[in-house]
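Inverse folding, one chain.
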């Protein structure tokens, strides 16, 4: 297989404009003849469905929640990046582009990232026009704050609820199209398979989560906006229902899965507090603007933070990275927090936490100012921990948060299956080996509002599409296969619950394919996953009925996919013998314990092709070419 990213020629700054002109167009009258299936209603999916319907396409929009506004994008807290440079600090499209490429440890495509930076300013204008209540300064202008990996303030925010407000903006646009008939909503529907006929993606198989009915849906193109796979670790900051299944089923139909081992560990999360915990809670990266991260200098020091004098505190990020301080990228901050805890300097009952202290900021700016910035985050922290962060430092520890890997897509956001487009966190395209904070919302809205309306039109105008209906063999075969899998899960009648298997898998992944990895542990993890997967298909119990509302059955299907996908992640990590961004192999690090890349052998996208249930997948390489940015060792000192 030859992977062609279809990156347009010409100067970097002109590529997107030239490409938009070169794309074929669908005239307004003809748009009404096409049906597009959009799976997911988060920022990417909601924006895409609303925008495509506004253009005149008929859109079928699917989500697993009871309402589109419950998509996990609602949980994003800190902000969204754009190169407006309102502060006159020297920001620019080029600087945003460079910071993003560098932050991703030079493992992303230049052309895709530059386009993202170009579009960023239009996103803010779009959202303001929708009425998104971004924070404003005293003069009424839009306010900004800093995020990790940047030395300028370019992050627009709505207190600690930016994802919620942006999603409500997309939701309002989406509901307008629902009311006009441009979008048909299918809530409480889970995609079980993508249907490929004549070499093109032409529909999906979905399960009605209320009735259990397995349905066939036809379209002229399919757009997957189904989020990331962080829940393979069981404990993550993702919503409990977040899963890999839609993307993984597409992978099994021939779509390549790119860089699956690139996972992001977020440095500021509330630490694990018990073995019966079902998820973790994010504390926004924006808190590192004013909060100072520290640990006691003396290992094993269990005094209360107020009893530890300044001279006995180690502000380890500020000391090690004076230029960026507490606002180093997430992978760097997370590894350093882990390093301090491994040295015995962690705090709290488990020793797996560091302090995030707002005492200096409160004394400098006043409690009222800090409350305006972070009030809802402080309330959330206090409700969960029973500690008041205005009076005592927060305790934080890294946790799985985001996944940079995803289905492989070209410059048009189309996978190697014609007609199957993938957007947002579900694709791999923009963030390399580490995503900078406040860039996920930027990518989702860029893909949905400003890229897919052009590129899907180019595909539809330039592709011969034969008449397809839901009674054709490809649809019936996919539906039958989905039913067989469901029946198989229901018939096992074992003794271990789905969640028990999921917890065990998550522990294997966290221990051996988490913040730090080595070849021996990865090999061990692969063997353990294979054994666990075999036991799952012999000993899982799924109560209830298949033709009914059955959340155990929902989870069983998702965990079955995680048990296969986890092995793919481990295989990808073993193949990439270097350290870069969120992939940190202990054998490859500098003298200062920073990630050490191998650009000669691994300056590439690793895209995996499914070869069957009993055969290892085949890895294909897309070389990454850097013509505008010089490859260098990342430094934030």
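Residues assigned per position:
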């Amino acid at each position: 297989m030859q992977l062609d990213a279809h990156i347009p020629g010409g100067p970097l700054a002109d590529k997107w404009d030239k490409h938009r002109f070169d794309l074929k167009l669908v005239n307004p009258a003809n748009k009404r003849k096409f049906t597009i299936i959009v799976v997911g209603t988060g920022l990417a999916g909601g924006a895409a469905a609303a925008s495509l319907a506004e253009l005149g396409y008929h859109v079928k929009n699917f989500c697993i929640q009871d309402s589109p506004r419950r998509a996990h994008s609602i949980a994003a807290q800190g902000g969204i990046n754009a190169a407006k440079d309102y502060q006159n600090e020297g920001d620019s499209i080029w600087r945003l582009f460079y910071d993003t490429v560098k932050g991703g440890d030079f493992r992303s495509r230049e052309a895709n990232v530059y386009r993202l930076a170009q579009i960023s300013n239009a996103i803010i204008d779009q959202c303001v026009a929708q009425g998104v209540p971004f924070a404003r300064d005293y003069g009424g202008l839009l306010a900004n704050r800093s995020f990790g990996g940047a030395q300028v303030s370019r992050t627009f925010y709505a207190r600690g609820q930016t994802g919620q407000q942006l999603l409500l903006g997309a939701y309002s646009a989406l509901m307008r199209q629902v009311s006009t008939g441009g979008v048909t909503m299918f809530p409480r529907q889970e995609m079980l398979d993508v249907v490929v006929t004549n070499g093109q993606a032409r529909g999906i198989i979905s399960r009605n989560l209320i009735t259990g009915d397995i349905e066939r849906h036809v379209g002229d193109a399919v757009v997957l906006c189904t989020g990331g796979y962080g829940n393979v670790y069981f404990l993550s900051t993702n919503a409990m229902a977040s899963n890999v299944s839609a993307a993984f089923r597409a992978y099994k139909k021939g779509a390549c899965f790119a860089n699956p081992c690139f996972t992001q560990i977020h440095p500021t999360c509330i630490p694990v507090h018990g073995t019966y915990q079902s998820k973790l809670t994010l504390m926004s990266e924006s808190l590192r603007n004013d909060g100072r991260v520290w640990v006691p200098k003396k290992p094993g020091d269990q005094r209360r933070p107020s009893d530890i004098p300044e001279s006995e505190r180690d502000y380890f990020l500020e000391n090690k990275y004076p230029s960026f301080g507490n606002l180093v990228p997430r992978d760097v901050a997370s590894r350093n927090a882990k390093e301090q805890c491994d040295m015995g300097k962690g705090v709290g009952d488990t020793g797996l936490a560091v302090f995030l202290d707002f005492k200096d900021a409160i004394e400098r700016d006043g409690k009222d100012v800090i409350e305006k910035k972070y009030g809802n985050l402080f309330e959330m922290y206090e409700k969960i921990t029973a500690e008041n962060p205005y009076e005592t430092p927060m305790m934080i520890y890294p946790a799985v948060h985001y996944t940079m890997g995803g289905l492989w897509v070209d410059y048009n956001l189309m996978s190697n299956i014609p007609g199957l487009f993938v957007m947002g966190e579900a694709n791999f395209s923009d963030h390399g080996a580490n995503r900078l904070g406040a860039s996920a919302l930027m990518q989702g809205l860029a893909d949905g509002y400003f890229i897919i309306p052009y590129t899907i039109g180019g595909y539809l105008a330039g592709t011969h599409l034969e008449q397809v209906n839901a009674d054709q063999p490809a649809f019936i075969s996919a539906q039958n296969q989905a039913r067989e899998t469901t029946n198989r899960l229901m018939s096992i009648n074992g003794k271990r619950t789905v969640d028990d298997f999921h917890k065990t898998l998550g522990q294997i992944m966290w221990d051996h394919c988490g913040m730090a990895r080595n070849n021996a542990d990865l090999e061990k993890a692969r063997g353990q996953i294979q054994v666990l997967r075999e036991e799952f298909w012999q000993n899982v119990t799924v109560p209830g009925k298949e033709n009914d509302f059955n959340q155990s059955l929902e989870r069983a299907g998702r965990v079955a996919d995680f048990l296969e996908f986890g092995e793919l992640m481990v295989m990808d990590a073993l193949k990439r013998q270097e350290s870069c961004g969120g992939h940190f192999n202990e054998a490859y690090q500098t003298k200062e314990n920073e990630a050490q890349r191998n650009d000669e052998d691994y300056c590439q996208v690793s895209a995996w092709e499914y070869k069957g249930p009993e055969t290892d997948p085949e890895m294909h390489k897309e070389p990454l070419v850097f013509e505008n940015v010089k490859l260098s060792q990342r430094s934030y000192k």
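The chain is about 35% helix and 15% strand. The mean pLDDT is 97.
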